[in-house]
Amino acid sequence: MSDDFEQHPADTAWHRWAPIGQTLDASGVPDSGPAPSIAAFELRPLAPMLVPEKPRQGELDPAECGICRPSENTIWHDDEWQVASGFEGGVGLPFVGAVAPRRHVRLEDAPIEVLAGLGPVLQRLSEATKTIPAVARCHFSRWNDGSAHLHIWAYARPAGMMQGRGAILPFWEQCLPASPDEMAAENIETVARVLAAGGGTAFPHR
Ligand SMILES: [Zn+2]
After folding, report:
1. What is the pLDDT, as a whole number, of residue 182?
2. Domains: count for the chain
């Protein structure tokens, strides 16, 4: 991206209302659940919001899309869908993965036959993740701020981890140390094996 990418403050009724530059009171966050996750939580001042935003990976040129490239991190795929895991640096939760169509589509323009397959593949990934003995539930998140290619994150919530219920789980993931390689690989193997048992191929690029 060239340095002359020109941005200006977003100007909508919401943006004019937003307390840009102020530091917001986050004292209510620790009391938001039965098992508070956070003892102290301080936000940085609300930063200016500039538009237009810079394009996401693969937005302007699908040839630059990382999700489209064959990868050792692809733990399973079938004709339409793929699941990736085993990301660099490791993860602390028992399993973190990303499910994406094999075609380069955005949610906005995905054809109906792709969208119709999303429900079944989410169900299969959730069930596969829960076969890891440490896992109670599989949470899904769709942000799509980094890559334009439609993808949905899967986070395995450990059994009994009441502090990890709901939207706080990805924050815990960023704070936990990476689990041992052997344990992480075994969990990935478990998910891939269960997915492939229902159709498709485990580790297609290894
Ligand atoms: Zn792509």
Report:
1. 97
2. 2
Neighbours of ion ligand 1 (CB under 5 A): 58, 65, 67-68, 104, 149
Q: Specify the pLDDT at position 103.
A: 97
103 and 181 fall within a common domain: yes
Residue 30: its pLDDT value, please? 62
What is the average pLDDT across 93-111? 97
> What domain range includes position 10?
1-54
Calculate how far, in angstroms, residue 144's C-alpha sits from the geometric centre of ligand 1.
12
d(CA 167, ligand 1 centre) in Å: 26
17 C-alpha to ligand 1 centroid (Å): 36
User: How much distance in Å is there from the Cα of 195 to the middle of ligand 1?
Assistant: 22
Ligand 1 centre from 31 Cα, in Å? 40
Rounded mean pLDDT, 69-74: 96
Specify whether 49 is located in the same domain as 75: no
Q: Which range in 9-23, 41-55, 189-203 is most confidently predicted, on average pLDDT?
A: 189-203
Does the pLDDT of residue 86 top 90, yes or no?
Answer: yes
What is the identity of the amino acid at 12?
Answer: T
Cα 112 to middle of ligand 1, angstroms? 17
pTM, rounded to two decimals: 0.90
Q: How far apart are CA 91 and CA 154, in angstroms?
A: 12
Tokens of 147: 């890559």
CA of 147 to the centre of ligand 1 (A): 8
b/e per residue 37-74 (b: at least 16 CB within 10 A): beeeeeeeeeeeeeeeeeeeebeeeeeebebbeeeebb
